[in-house]
TrEMBL record:
Name this protein carries in UniProt: Putative beta-barrel assembly-enhancing protease
EC number annotated for this UniProt entry: 3.4.-.-
Pfam annotation, one family: TPR_19
Location within or outside the cell: Periplasm
GO function term, MF aspect, one: zinc ion binding
One GO cellular component term: periplasmic space
Secretion signal span: 1-25
Keywords: Hydrolase, Metal-binding, Metalloprotease, Periplasm, Protease, Signal, Zinc
Biological role stated in the UniProt entry: Functions as both a chaperone and a metalloprotease. Maintains the integrity of the outer membrane by promoting either the assembly or the elimination of outer membrane proteins, depending on their folding state.
Polar residues bias spans: 257-266
Binding site for Zn(2+): H134, H138, E199
Cofactor(s) named in the record: Zn(2+)
Length: 484
């Protein structure tokens, strides 16, 4: 699959706000209705606005992984959990950041970020899901807003600074905690204590969501216990332990709550292991020798499902290093055994395109789309294959529809801008580039590109009217962002 260069990591995010499931354990689900107590400080509508603005800054400043296959997997897993969560009041969006540090965080508006390093540490899909369920609980219980309300009662004069520092602490724990400590000592200590209470609440609600969703409830205390044991005496713990402290009392409490649910013997999730293998092959920062060595070491103790994923990962390494015979030897049997698997289709398409077998790749994707016509991964792959074959004009209708259906996916806009540029359609190229900038919160640059596009097309044309209307929308979005 096509891959775009990632933006360099930069965590100057504090400026966003400036300074200013069935089981015998039902009793554990009967929690007090405290998740909505923060409405007096921050409405759901305002949370959504902050979340949208923060997400745009993350796209601009952090190495967000836009890989369609990984995005599809993490979204599917996240929404499986959300479907079984309580007190859901906002839409949810899940995304990945290319970072080997063990971390996950959630922020306003139902946005949940997963570091790619978490896949390397979690040993099963249930363990990964346990972290995500915990973060979902932070959102549904409105912990960030409640923290703000608590601080407003204690020290109103420092609320503005605490808003910015708490948002920064979500993504950059060390910088955020430093910012919190830059306020009064009393406010800082109150914030830390309130966070510990939030963590315990997120654990018990997350465990309920995890069990109701069909995962192992014991996965959460198992994962957190292993993490605490490994880094107990570390001089520099991973970011997750800075924002999610793991005292023994918390681990004991989560284990006790998880043990109230029936123990499940879960079979290995092939999709989880395929996603994990893809991350090792392409997003772990390993060279080909190191990646192949990792796969070979894991192979020694792997069962059949995991071995399939490991062979898939090795095939990716071979594809990326132009070793086509080795890639075919591993990938062809996988595709023959499961021809509808999108991980295998995607990689087989990569292999076709690398060998300039464009028609073969296009036929493969068109066949797959007949069975799953609305799939985002397949639609983007087909557009990419058409572009590689020099059929830019054929890719435009696919991408135009795709960007209409998925306006927040920069992949579609990037590809559409490239196609329009090749076809000499300057106005359409500028418009697509403007949408990429808007997704990153670069409002002024986006507006200027749309103004240029409007000036190129015929006066009073439908295109000019469309561009001018979009300029008005972007100006309003810019004003709203400034008002935050």
């Amino acid at each position: 699959m096509f891959r775009f260069a990632k933006a360099p990591a930069c965590l100057l995010i504090g400026a966003l706000l400036g300074t200013s499931l069935p089981s015998p354990a039902n009793e554990f689900n009967d929690l007090p209705e405290i998740g909505t107590a923060a409405a007096a400080t921050l409405s759901i509508e305002k949370e959504l606005q902050y979340g949208d603005a923060y997400m745009r800054m993350i796209r601009a400043k952090m190495p967000v992984i836009t890989d369609p296959l990984l995005s599809e997997y993490i979204q599917d897993l996240g929404h499986r959990l959300v479907a079984n969560a309580s007190d859901v009041r906002t839409p949810f969006s899940f995304f990945m950041i290319q970072n080997r540090a063990i971390n996950a965080f959630a922020f306003f508006g139902g946005h949940v970020a997963i570091h790619s390093g978490l896949f390397l540490y979690a040993r099963s899909e249930s363990e990964l899901a346990s972290v995500m369920a915990h973060e979902i609980a932070h959102v549904t219980q409105r912990h960030l807003a409640r923290s703000m309300e608590d601080q407003a009662k204690k020290s109103p004069a420092t609320l503005a600074a605490l808003i910015g520092s708490m948002m920064l602490a979500i993504a950059s724990p060390e910088a955020g905690m430093a910012a919190i400590h830059a306020t009064t000592a009393a406010s800082a200590q109150g914030q830390i204590n309130y966070t510990r209470s939030n963590e315990q609440e997120a654990d018990r609600i997350g465990i309920a969501t995890l069990a109701k969703s069909g995962f192992e409830a014991q996965a959460m205390p198992r994962f957190f216990g292993r993490l605490a044991d490994q880094y107990r005496y570390a001089s520099k713990p991973p970011p997750m332990l800075l924002t999610h402290p793991l005292p023994e009392s918390r681990i004991t409490d989560s284990r006790s709550r998880a043990n109230q649910y029936p123990s499940r013997q879960m079979s290995e999730s092939e999709r989880y292991h395929l996603a994990r293998a893809r991350i090792v092959a392409r997003y772990a920062g390993l060279d080909s020798k190191a990646a192949l060595g990792w796969f070979d070491r894991e192979m020694k103790s792997a069962d059949a499902v995991v071995r399939t994923a490991l062979n898939y990962g090795k095939a990716l390494v071979y594809i990326d290093n132009d070793n086509y015979p080795q890639a075919h030897a591993l990938l062809d049997p996988l595709l023959a055994s499961d021809p509808g698997n999108r991980f295998f289709i995607d990689s087989a398409t990569d292999l076709d395109l690398k060998q300039k077998q464009y028609d073969k790749a296009i036929r493969r994707l068109e066949t797959a789309l007949k069975a799953n016509p609305d799939n985002k991964v397949l639609r983007l792959n087909l557009a990419h294959a058409l572009q590689e074959a020099g059929r830019m004009n054929d890719s435009v209708p696919i991408l135009t529809r795709y960007t209409y259906d998925n306006p927040d996916d920069s992949n579609g806009w990037h590809m559409l801008s490239q196609a329009q540029a090749t076809l000499g359609r300057r106005d359409a190229e500028l418009a697509a580039r403007a949408e990429v900038l808007a997704l990153r919160g670069s409002w002024e640059e986006a507006i200027q590109l749309y103004i240029q596009a409007s000036q190129i097309v015929d006066v009073d044309s439908l295109d000019q009217a469309r561009y001018d209307a979009r300029i008005d929308q972007l100006r309003l979005a810019r004003q709203r962002a400034a008002e935050l």
